[in-house]
Amino acid sequence: MSTPEKVVENPAIDQVTPMEEVAFTVEETTSMEQVAVEETTTLEQVNIAEQPVTTSYSVFVPDFENSSNTLISSTFDRYNDSIRNSLEKDLDVIQQKVNLSLQTESNNFYRNAKWSPDGSYLLTNSADDVIRLFQLPSNVYKDADNADTILPMVPSFGIREGESVYDFCWFPTMNAQDPSTCCFLTSVRDHPIQLWDVSTATVRASYSAIDHCEKFIGPNVLSFNLDGSKIYCGYENMIEIFDVHRPGPDSKKVATIPKRKSKKGQKGIISCIDFCPDYSGLYAAGSYSQSIGIYDEVNNELCLKLTGFDGGATQVKFSKDGTLLFSASRHSDSILCWDIRDSANILFELPRPGKTNQRISFDLDATGKYLITGDQFGNTLIYDIATGEAEDVETKKRLVQTFKAHDDIVSCATFNPVYPVIATCSGQRKFTLPQDSSDEDEDMDEERVIIDNTLKTWRVPGEYQWYMYESAPVVDDRMIENTTITTEETVVLQT
């Protein structure tokens, strides 16, 4: 016969008084309520974190159809001189020593100008092989004290290179508030690629491109990728890629053709490079052999090849949405717009007189609606590229504004990415032949040679507009873990 189990009584429980019993019950209920409140608070935090984050930003929208541009600063006749005299004027700002006795009397014309990504500085390149840095004028806005005055432009410093400057470019995330990002690259003939510091005008790093004869070769074009981690350089039948964090000769060489005599791939000297701004990993490379290649940044393979235009490509630039590609070439009177979404055909042409060997650079504004370019007659043309493939000449023309900016060829016209300012520069190489004394009478009837080597900035009409977008929610994993633990503790307590 089974013996009944003996129940062990807890004397502590048996001796609990009614008042203690009530206190225990209240304490237990309060603890459960606190846990429930903690659970509710944590769940609310998770719900808040899961909501989209709204971000706002402002963009300057130009109004070229109803107003005209205003000249606010210029170099005037400071560089309307020979290379020797121009260098003598800037001896106090050029960082290197210059031997004036070895300089030529050739015309010191402007080749190119580029705004910094934050819009605070302007870099220029001239025939004297000096990279000059100009600051943003103080009379950018109409309400400035000197808004109606044309200010003189004087460089903050100059860097004299040893040979011809092929190209230069800013660091893509440059911000004057962060000195570590204030730098730019230069490409010089028979010299390594150099990364210059804007604050100190000294070299931060050098990247050596060496050919098969163990000689330095300067790339014809160089460009950072969008995040600034790589440097892409263009050579004959090759694109060389450097890691920004690894100065020296280490690089990756990408051949644009499989073999030297092959008909596949993209032949010729790579003369211009531009990256698609939609972060799709595509970049375009133009060649002097009348072709443009679209490459994948991941494997650097040729995805699309564009041909059918005259002259070597001098500039390529994607639209802001990455669906169109604009290109310019030598001895061409138009800028081509390519549809790279599907057909790879030319959608339309933008007329621009440019029958010259010199490069004429163009640019797009921050909204991606307007394209600006110069021509060989000193005019600046502004096109509305949002018109699309079809142009209605009567109601909506692509050419929205044209104005006389210089007395010589406009080698570059560019938008400031932040401020309502346009920069233009001019000039070209001039040749003077010796004349006989018998030809003096004939010379009096001939037109005098026009010299206009100036850099100008123009105030653009328009206004700032605010835009908002919703970004993806960011959920903190720690919040989810806290919610799970709190829920488990509540279940245990309820049990």
UniProtKB/TrEMBL annotation:
<dbReference type="InterPro" id="IPR051150">
    <property type="entry name" value="SWT21/TCAB1_mRNA_Telomere"/>
</dbReference>
<dbReference type="InterPro" id="IPR015943">
    <property type="entry name" value="WD40/YVTN_repeat-like_dom_sf"/>
</dbReference>
<protein>
    <recommendedName>
        <fullName>Telomerase Cajal body protein 1</fullName>
    </recommendedName>
</protein>
<dbReference type="Pfam" id="PF00400">
    <property type="entry name" value="WD40"/>
</dbReference>
<dbReference type="InterPro" id="IPR036322">
    <property type="entry name" value="WD40_repeat_dom_sf"/>
</dbReference>
<dbReference type="InterPro" id="IPR001680">
    <property type="entry name" value="WD40_rpt"/>
</dbReference>
